[in-house]
Amino acid sequence: MTRKLETPHPPGRTLRSQLWFDNPENPGMTALYLERYLNYWITKHELTSGKPIIGIAQSGSDLSPCNRHHLELALRVREGIRSAGGIAFEFPTHPIQETGKRPTAALDRNLSYLSLVEVLYGYPLDGVVLTTGCDKTTPAAIMAAATVNIPAIVLSGGPMLNGWWKGERAGSGTVVWQARADHAAGKISYQEFLDIVASSAPSVGHCNTMGTASTMNALAEALGMSLPGCAAIPAPYRERGQNAFETGVRAVEIVREDLKPSDILTREAFENAIVACSAIGGSTNAPIHIIAIARHAGIDLSIQDWETIGYDVPLLVNMQPAGKYLGEEYYRAGGLPAVLNELLKAGRVHADALTINGKTIGQNVENARIADEDVIRPFSKPMLAKAGFKVLRGNLFDSAIMKTSVISPEFRARYLSNPKDPEAFEGRAVVFDGPEDYHHRIEDPALNIDEHTLLFIRGVGPIGYPGSAEVVNMQPPAALIKKGINSLPCIGDGRQSGTSGSPSILNASPEAAAGGGLALLKTGDRVRIDLKKGAANMLIDDAELGARRLELKKQGGFKYPESQTPWQEIQRALVEQLDEGMVLRPAIKYQHVVQTKGVPRDNH
Question: Is the dihedral of CA 434, 440, 443, 448 positive or negative?
């Protein structure tokens, strides 16, 4: 579809790019800015015509396989931009690949954010298409767009096709956890383990489960930053390329309309995202990233909001890890628009929240329908009545979250079904200092780990790891797995993969490295978790805890590995805790930069 206006941009409004390429008041600098961009065949007429210049923030690369197909999708984005009367400038973003970057891809979210802020502000761009996909690429891009506040639109890369292994669906990430347990129990060989896991990634695209990638791209759409239906389209489908073209067209239009992230990212939009996250069975990483986006957008959003707004929202999507199906079935069943329509009819979303296509979210989804009620359930017949996150507090931490939609019948029967103490459990703690310690000692019989043990891991937060690692979902010792006990309560100051079905207690803040209560916990301590009260406590008196804290201070505080790179040291010195979005403290004061800071100074 081609859309053209009679004028390149609204009369009386100067585009940012004209301050570089067509500024008669400063001919010397205009000539300098202009001449070098002519050396790869763009004409002077194009750059001085007043056509909007649209950046394509390219997240695809050989280092980022989940996003690599954006290298091809960008061609369709370019065609859309050109057909609508714009000029495309494509540029790379810092690579972030969840499965490739060590020590953790989360370390790079803020680095990618910072670099993208500098590009969007410092170069002649009037608007931008943000190409997203793998987990952290989505929040990093939207955080930057919110900070700079030029017109921006999100293009998701889409999930992989369904994976299959011996006739059964093999969901990316999710299949790893069962295969890992089978390997530990001696049911499969090392080579079979590798082959099973590899079967879950049969095509280009990000995770085909409702892991963090699918979640964050769905929430970009729920926030209103993507075209309706964008998030769920599988990467290889023809509709993905068609959506890329339409995104390019719309990128030019939002520049002409001056539709900015600040117009979209309102408190109502964030509340819609929280509700949508519960309904789709979204990742435990979502609160971290959505809170980070809100803070950069200047919107007050707390970890408690995730329980207050989203806890009683039912689970509507039957998709791994909380359900059965994968990305292709979810898309064919109607994707996020069908889910939002159910929530709209139930009065659970703000229908008048503006979205990037210029319509409200209510208008966008009013005609969406469920095509397969086994994949997307009606609001009146959900998979689970209350599927949101539970926020826990106590002397272990100020806050942590538990994903209730993945509490298995086995876990509920063992830990949450005592008629004398429902929704609560107590147990003996076994504490590990980082994943290396866990792998080294989990099979040690001297730890006396049984089905009532609580596994703790600390030193894996934003400072301690650094970057916060996805290591909290620890599997039990092989001896317990062989007895059919596949999960123990796991608690930690790090994260876990959004593809994991473990009902862990995660994102504990403050972390041990920042002086949180987990730093005082010892193996053998009794711990009580009470979901009714939202409480998590060491059953130790205040005097003993005070003595432990004093002793820890004498020892110089909680010990963690030294930084290995300059960025690790820089981030550690500036980063907030997980409940605050793991943002950089100095960065959040920079909001709506284009409007508040004016034009960057000339470079010569």
Answer: negative
Q: How would you classify the pairing of strands 163-165 and 152-156? A: unpaired
Asked whether the beta carbons of 292 and 139 are under 8 A apart, the reply is yes
Residues with Cβ within 8 Å of residue 196, at least 6 apart in sequence: 165, 170, 175, 179, 188
- Distance of alpha carbon 41 from alpha carbon 21, whole angstroms: 15
Q: How far is CA 237 from the centre of its chain?
A: 23
Q: What is the DSSP string of 297-317?
A: HT----HHHHHHHHTTPPB-B
The Cα-based distances of 34 to 48, 422, 491, 568 in angstroms read 9, 70, 56, 38
Q: What is the 3-state secondary structure (H, E, C) of 399-466?
A: EEEEEHHHCCHHHHHHHCCCCCCCCEEEEEEEEEECHHHHHHHCCCHHHCCCCCCEEEEECCCCCCCC
Residues with Cβ within 8 Å of residue 230, at least 6 apart in sequence: 154, 155, 156, 217, 220, 221, 243, 247
Tokens describing residue 141: 């891009």
Contact 462, 577 (CB under 8 A): yes
Spatial distance between the Cα atoms of 307 and 134, rounded to a whole number of angstroms:
26
For the stretch 441-469, pLDDT in tens is: 999 999 999 999 999 999 999 999 999 99
Tens-place pLDDT, residues 225-266:
999 999 999 999 999 999 999 999 999 999 999 999 999 999
CA distances from 317 to 54, 122, 334, 345, 401 (A): 35, 42, 11, 16, 21
